[in-house]
Amino acid sequence: MENWPAYESKMKAEGLNEAAIAAFKYTFEKLTSGESLMVGEDKITPVDNLPSYDSLSKEDPAFLQSTVMLKLNGGLGTGMGLEKAKSLLELKDGNTFLDFIAKQVMQMRSDYGVQLAFMLMNSFSTSADTLSFLSKYEGLQAGDLPLEFVQNKAPKVTAADLSPVSWPANPGHEWCPPGHGDLYPAMLGSGSLQMLLDKGFKYMFVSNSDNLGATMDLKLLTWFAQSGAPFAMEVAARTDADKKGGHLAHKATEGGLLLREAAQCPDEDEAEFQNINKYKYFNTNNLWVNLPALKAAYDKFNGSLPLPVISNSKTVDPRDKKSTKVLQLETAMGSAIECFDGAAAILIPRSRFAPVKTTNDMIALMSDAYEVTPDHRMILKPERNGVPPNVKLDGCYKFVDDMMKLVPNGPPSLIGCTKLTIEGKVSFAKGVTFKGTVKVVNTADSFKELAAGEYTDTTVEL
Known about the structure:
Shape: globular
Strand order of the largest sheet: 6-5-2-10-14-11-17
Number of helices: 11
Distance between the termini: 58 Å
Largest sheet: 7 strands, mixed
Radius of gyration: 22 Å
């Protein structure tokens, strides 16, 4: 821990609170301890059976009074080439993620006659844009409950010697988000956890702002509240499209549940990690937290939840691959499932999981494979039988502004499409329909247009 004093003084100079500093100290200690951050096959066993949403029937609106709905909204979408909150992207009918979320909250309040509490966890990068955008929704803020608290930031670690990285050309690049596991120290350090407890709140539903299927569901709230569980994770059945995402497992020795992320999987276990018949369930990041139990966990672990640490190798300037190599230490909020005795998981329908992580996801959501429900959820149409189209775009479409060159006339029809692969520079004319498995290839250096029409189980070379 020879570098720790430098980190501590840097974080204090930046004005970070004690909870944020304690959380980073824990992750840095894990990194420097020499202890493996990996979760190998020898440490886990598969989860075979879980309770299912389809078996739930009870709904008790009384629980809404003591529940807060929280959206994680810290992501800039840098992986998609964005410099603003990803939730400000327009998806359908001129509506952004934030429009959908605000309308969902207002609809729920109207339907049940309850002033459902709503908060956002923003980041230092998304706070101003988000609050400005949401100001048009009068009454969205619930009473005297603030609309947001802001997540912490963590120092980037120089890969070569584990010292705090210095980047005078843009000092902002010296910091990174500490992963959504920061939810817990951010709630503690901002005073939000204590404030909610003082106001009598007992339950919290947390989900990502880019998942428009994750609404406050009364059946799930009633199940969670009546179960007495301190923590619960909504999981969905893994498909081929989900095989690279984190999965649920049992701890091999102690029992209890844990979440294994791809970055925690040793290379030699990658095939087993991606075996969707063995590890059947993935974390949707829709979580239910008992707030008194969260406070008790902090007391039990002396102010810092022992979340598994994920180390990501990056460059200090994400757009300059020749800049200093750094490690970004992160934690995942779902991994807190292993910090609570009696934590639960429940299998939910795919309709509660419609996130946008890549431009592949965005094309699918923009298409006619998804529809908007009267209560403002984005869900797969029934014809899809719960399985989204598998879209694989060429690397040249990684960023949103480049992806829009593919669909200048609007998205293609994907409602009957199983898999769509695009290789090379292509743009779609208006009225393109894909069915079955289709590949479109252009080997030329300049863009070529795919003409309007229906393409079924074929490879098209332009």
